[in-house]
Amino acid sequence: MMKLKYNILLWLFLFSGKLILAQEVLSLQQAIDSALLNNYRIAVARNEVEIAQNNNHPGQAGMLPTVGLNISDTPANNNIRQEFANGSEIVRNNVNSNNLNAQIAASMTLFDGGRMFALRNKLGEQQSLAELTLKAEVQNLISDVVTAYTALTALQQNEKVLERLKSSAQARKQLVEIRISAGMANQSDLYLAELDLENANQALISIQRQIHRSSTALLSLMKSTSDRTILVSDSLSFVTVPEKWKADQLYQNNPEIQMSNTSVRIAIQGEKEMSALRYPKITLTAAYGYLLSQSQAGFSLYNQSYGASGSIGINIPLFSGHVFKNNYENAILTRKNVELTAEQTKNDVLQRYFLAWNLYESALEQKAVLQKGLSTAMAYLDLMTLRFNEGQSTVLELREAERSFEEANLMKINNDITLKLAETDILRISGQLIH
Q1: Burial class, 368, CB count within 10 angstroms (exposed 0-12 / middle 13-18 / buried 19+)
Q2: Which of 72, 93, 147, 204 could form a disulfide linkage to 79, CB 3.0–4.6 angstroms apart?
Q3: pLDDT value at position 204?
Q4: What does the DSSP assignment read for 134-175?
Q5: pLDDT (tens digit, 9 = 90+) per residue, 135-187?
Q6: What are the domain boundaries of the chain?
Q7: What are the C-alpha distances in Å from 133 to residues 260, 350, 366?
Q8: 141 with 197: CB under 8 angstroms?
Q9: What fold does the segment set 66-111+281-316 form as a domain?
Q10: Would residue 322 be called left, alpha or beta, if left means φ above 0 and alpha means ψ between -120 and 50 degrees?
């Protein structure tokens, strides 16, 4: 039995370049692997994780010093006229001069109202949000693939039922023709057999078109450009779903709620950032410089200096046209909105989770009953076919057995679809589809 909890080498598929080629019969696992490998949203989300990882660094938050080296060399050719207080005068044309200036300086923020710490915390939360987004995208894609694969499996199961009914109608038509030639049946029985055969053919054509569309939808999720109709497994596999969680346990594990809570923490750090802008900013700068100035004429012919220097700068915000105040108030409102959205997400997730559980429990309870009903309908059809072949039952009785067989199959197939999709929803909502 195939497991639905795809902790299987999932992250290897996300970061590897190998593609599992579909076999003649495409398994659910192969469909999921191909979809994960080729999906553009997953690739984008994975890149966003790398971006967030790169940003989550002390230097990005301004907690590390910055060091720079500046060098400038300025040659010049000027005409000079200088008059001095002692009455002397210098007049020269085409005087060459050169100024060389080099400085290495390091600057570091000592205090900024705690903004750098709030920013560092926000960068960490943004990385967590990117990772949760990737996990949610993976789970959603797996859920989409399971849904498409389940629909295709159900259609192919229904096709086999229709093929059985068509085969039964063909055999009945041939038997009725033999009986008519022997004077043991009337023309109405033949008309009914021909009508049933034609209906079976039309139903098969319709179901085959649906199978092609469903196959195309699954191939689209796998990002395959093929237009072929693929063959999937004959039956659906089910797993034992873990026990129903209480609300608090669900809140801790649901990806959507985790993302909402992370967004709240990001908004809180953003609020702290805005608040910190109201405080003074203190920076420390240390430098070592070299200056060389040379000229062929003028007051200073040669000047050289070098050495270390340092400074402490304080920037005190006094008035900014209410920009800081408005930004801080907007940050508070943004945080409140994010908190409200998070509460709404909790309610929505809880409702979806319990709805999925209700559907799952109901479908699971009906599964054994419907399987038993299908076995009974199949045995009844076999019996009525045998009795009809031996002339012990009528066409109407056989047609009623065929109708019961078709309805029993349809009810079982629909219940299996409900069970599989509810199972997938429970695992996805509880964050257990992958781990």
Answers
A1: exposed
A2: 93
A3: 93
A4: HHHHHHHHHHHHHHHHHHHHHHHHHHHHHHHHHHHHHHHHHH
A5: 999 999 999 999 999 999 999 999 999 999 999 889 888 888 888 888 777 78
A6: 10-38+114-279+321-429, 66-111+281-316
A7: 11, 19, 36
A8: no
A9: Outer membrane efflux proteins (OEP) (2.20.200)
A10: left
105: β partners: 68, 287
What is the chain's mean pLDDT, rounded? 87
The neighbour count for residue 153, using CB atoms within 10 Å, is 22
Which residues, 6+ apart, have CB-to-CB distance to 261 below 8 Å?
Answer: 342
Cα separation values, 222 from 21, 99, 145, 149, Å: 11, 66, 8, 11
* Fold category of 10-38+114-279+321-429 in CATH: Outer membrane efflux proteins (OEP) (1.20.1600)
Instruction: State mean pLDDT over 216-244.
Output: 82
pTM of the full predicted structure? 0.80
10-38+114-279+321-429 and 66-111+281-316: identical CATH topology? no
Contact yes or no for 137/41 (Cβ under 8 A): yes
Determine the longest span between alpha carbons in the chain, in angstroms.
149
Q: Which two tokens stand for residue 98?
A: 């050169």
